[in-house]
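#dry-run=false #mode=assembly
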Amino acid sequence: MAIWIDGRRHEADPERNILDVCLSRGLDLPYFCWHPALGSVGACRQCAVKVFKDDKDTRGRLAMACMTPAKDGTRLSIDDAEARELRRSVIEWLMLNHPHDCPVCDEGGECHLQDMTVMAGHLVRRTRFEKRTFRNQYLGPFVRHEMNRCIQCYRCVRFYADHAGGKDLGVFGAHDAVYFGRHADGVLESAFAGNLVEVCPTGVFTDRTLGRHYVRKWDLQTAPSVCVHCSLGCNTTPGERAGSLRRIRARYSGAVNGWFLCDRGRYGYEFVNSERRVRRPFVRGEAATSEVTPAALARAWSKGRVLGIGSPRASVESNYALAALVGPERFHQGTSAAQTALVATIIRILREGPARTPSLREVERCDAVLVLGEDVASTAPMLALALRQSVRRQPERAALELGIPGWQDGAVREVVGNRKGPLFIAASVANEARELDELATRTVRAAPEDVARLGFAVAHALDASAPEADGLFGRLPAQIAGALAGAERPLVVSGTGAGSEAVIQAAASVAWAAGAGRGRAAELVYVVPECNSLGAALIGGRSLAEAFAAMERGEVTGAIILENDLYRRAPEADVDAFLDRAGHVVVIDHLAHDTASRASTLLPAATFAESSGTFVNNEGRAQRFFQVFDPDSTDIRPSWRWIAALDGATDRWPNLDELQAALARELPIFGEIAAAGVPAEYRVRGARIPRALHRQSGRTAITANRELHEPRPPEDPDSPFAFSMEGAPRVPLARLAPEVWAPGWNSCQALNRFSAEIGGALLGGDPGVRLLEPIEGAPPAYFSPPRVDSLPEPPPDSLLVVALHHVFGSEELSALAPGVAELAPKPYVALGEEEALERGVSEREEVDLSIDGGPILTLPVRIRPGLPRGAVGLPAGPVRFVPAGSRARISKR
Amino acid sequence: MTWTPSAAGQKRIDEIIARYPSKMAACLPALRLAQEEIGHVSKEAIDWVSRRLELPRAHVQGVVSFYTLYHQKPVGKHVVQVCRTLSCALVGGERILDHCQKKLGIRPGETTPDGKITLETAECLASCGSGPVLTVDDEFVENLTIESIDALLDRLRSEP
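#status=ok
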């Protein structure tokens, strides 16, 4: 199919509108209100083109490109004089009230409005009148508000309310005084508010954290990166200047996160600049220089008697390097026995069962969902955003049947109305905003074991050969089974959040049983705790409990601990005992924490922004993060380089590629890991890929306070990127482009130039390789439901400990960012309404809590509606270690 | 401080809600009801509507601020809204508004010190053929002249 644009033939997809086709073909056509994720509403009138009936029609008519489908043979002109004049006058009136403050505006230099003003040819202001002015609002620690710059494109509320389900950002007033903001000053409630910064075409919403250490886009060094703040592996573009990380932006991936990021992912980055960073080696608490360190290292490292403790937040490569150093027998995963077992079960299910894990973008296309046991909105916010889109799939079919294309956003929403597709949620807890509950067909709040039983009952309803479960939920299992069986793409979501093996097994059973009717198992997503939980687990190794036991038995005399604060993984007394017994403790980490303070040798590790490596996300997708900047201290190194130095064999793995090759040889599951990145010797026409845009300024001056001569840019042995603005001007593989930019397109909307079809895969393919694939058609090896009578009788008056997750505060690294810390809860103990009533405790009252007979914690009570009877919730993060599944006692003070 | 309508108002809102398939549809009449009882739509009234209809406060406040028929502040005994849209402007609407301001000694959005008249502007009142127009409370006054304005305002002010 083809359309004719200004007399030239262009291939076009009839499912798209003309604006989308023009931009996909690399043509310049200005627009504001259209966004590929939000569709068309025809509000701003900026994308006017001339459309002709046929080749004899010379007059044509003006039409909004975003509202006109690309039918076969459509003839249109972008260049038509009348269309150009209309576009010029539209931007002129949009600019009537826009202030002349570009030089002091944080959006300047990457402003879609600037780009479109130039593109549409509005070059001289004629207005003589006073501009309309507004009062701005305080919107919290992440987003700054400057309403005077607004051009009323409505994108902010269309993203915030329509796409992300936010309730507290609205439109006020009418005519020339339309105001976008909250009903009153206050922190934006949505965990996706930070996307406003990119969705807004100008500087109404800007990044407050960037504003505190501001630089222009063209002065940032960037590289393709991956978020470290949950297991989804959203793609990011971190930006650095002069040794500090200044911001994170969403990096488009057609497979994972699309255009957006959650606020934990966007604003957690400031831990990299934290005062708690370890910036030099310490030997027995004394700062050491890297020159004296090798001797200390040699002392610390006594071959054969040292065990290694890895980390789910360290790269695949660093975990592997440690396993290779200490040997597989002495390598431990660095997670509790319970957590290690949960992740191992998930990997077994994903590798040996018939159910496939969809990518995050594929989740949006699923049309019936069962969530079992996971508080998705807190543990993996972007997955909750994808589920929010999935409930539109069934009702929007009515629109498609009426011939309304999916991009006609207003019309489709009109047809969909309040109808929602099937979404069933069974979990002990929801996040405090209960943001998925409002979409759910049914929500069940029950203890993890009961949630699992419901899952098994659904599996049995789908496939009679799946084992029967105790009937507890009446007709609900049949209703859920019916919704899943009747869907085109059913999906089951679960994870480690409930801390229950049975829940994980039940989710697999449902997904597998859904294959009984349709011949193909339902899709299955597991949320895991950290950014590299799967990658670290695929390396293998035992649990932390076994490390503690080996130390207790005296089999080892020392430990090397990789990027891990053990106090978050095990009870304090156990960790203390382990560290007391260990002769040498080498800690390699970028943050000082209680484990690091016990180290006999503390080595400063590079963060994700200062090193390259691979994370495996919850989908089993290995993704490479590339080093963004060179830390100004030569002591800061990727953990795996320190590990090589411990061995005295720094040339064992001269660069990341060699390390990966060794890993791929040893562990076949990682055979394709190199394809997640690109070899260090990759060049574009003989040149490296520059990390900075060609306009970067001040290179000769930026280090002049230390050295008058301009230093050579540092070498990067691990990637083809250069710490410079010099190098290949254009990268054919869009996934390697450090930043999106194209001539005339300085804002993030330049992304339109980086995929063949907007919203599809990046040019040259989306990043990442999937390491885990199911065995298609494998007969389901159903798990058995937990039996009520098989459980030991819980101690009387004791409560089941449930971990409560928070978007802000539960994840270790982001909690160090000041904005995130501001929104994180203080430690508390949560009880359901009934339980609190029975015990006669009220909100904010302090109670004593003791877990498994351990030390007493005094915490204020929070009543958490929906928390089942017999359970007590503790916030993961604010309470450093929450042993989910343990029994606790509480008593009034 | 929370506000709830009178018993009669409570009954009326129940009837209004029952008329529509979704509670959201009852937003305009619910606000109207609140305004009739309070005289304007206060913050507390917005809170009540958002609770009663289970709507985000931002949405309700957006509705209130969109329509000139809802008053966000207390108003005088009569509300005079002068059209300021194009058709009226072409036949002297701006002069009419200027005259009202001078005569009453207040600007749009303000109320006379005796509490009798609130002056406001409105967008198109859908009576373009008979401009310039204004409304006094729920009534149209059309084909305005300086003289007819004087007579109108004098009458409103002299009412007991």
